[in-house]
Amino acid sequence: MSRILIVEDTPLMRDSLVDVLTASGHEVTTADNGLNAVEMIADGAEFDAIITDIIMPEMDGIQAIMEIQSMQPHARIIAISGGSARMEKAQGLETARRLGAVAVLEKPFEVDTLLTAVDAALA
């Protein structure tokens, strides 16, 4: 069983991701923003993969990716984004890819697309 951290500020999206990944046999932990995720990892939490939104309060996904990678350089990160008024989805996802995200997904995405990305990240 793989341990996956979901970093997502929207409760409905976070709950949907938890449901899909739990049903697929993964152990799932959640954080509602990048700062909470970084604090978990700084406190010693370990995950096989991290799925993070890009646009979030407190600390966005880009900053979280950079902080997480400074602590765990080989972290397997999947970035997801629906964009916002201040950032197009493609812009944030391309930045995440350049920072080392193993996969990027534009919201909305299909369940199969998510599971394929998770499988690739865990391989």
From TrEMBL:
<feature type="modified residue" description="4-aspartylphosphate">
    <location>
        <position position="53"/>
    </location>
</feature>
<dbReference type="GO" id="GO:0000160">
    <property type="term" value="P:phosphorelay signal transduction system"/>
</dbReference>
<dbReference type="Pfam" id="PF00072">
    <property type="entry name" value="Response_reg"/>
</dbReference>
<feature type="domain" description="Response regulatory">
    <location>
        <begin position="3"/>
        <end position="122"/>
    </location>
</feature>
<keyword id="KW-0597">Phosphoprotein</keyword>
<dbReference type="InterPro" id="IPR011006">
    <property type="entry name" value="CheY-like_superfamily"/>
</dbReference>
<protein>
    <submittedName>
        <fullName>Response regulator</fullName>
    </submittedName>
</protein>
<dbReference type="InterPro" id="IPR052048">
    <property type="entry name" value="ST_Response_Regulator"/>
</dbReference>
<dbReference type="InterPro" id="IPR001789">
    <property type="entry name" value="Sig_transdc_resp-reg_receiver"/>
</dbReference>
